[in-house]
Sequence to fold (119 residues):
Amino acid sequence: MGSETDNSHELRDFVDTHHLRNSHSIIHFNAIVSIKTAKNKVANIHSEVMVNFDEYGSVSLLRTEIELDPYLYPTVFDAKWQPMEHVDGEYLLVSDTHRKNPDIGKYTVKIHPLKRLRD
Fold:
């Protein structure tokens, strides 16, 4: 993985495999999310997730059961920059190193989709 087109393909495969796009092409769903950063970790939290395909694609964690401090946890991911992989047809893995914030540093995010929010 690595190129923006590979990342975009992985994100599209994730969305299509899990039937996350509604009839109006809105991709808004509930998920179980785990985030591990250089200094912090949260596991198996419920989150609303939105995917947008302007250009290569992006993923945003919208509402989570606990408030995520954006200075400690990444919450927006762009397929143009962050490596994305649809792992074993089960979850989306985003991993990278935050170059501007050493408190985040090297991170991995796992997004396990649950249910589409809008039909």
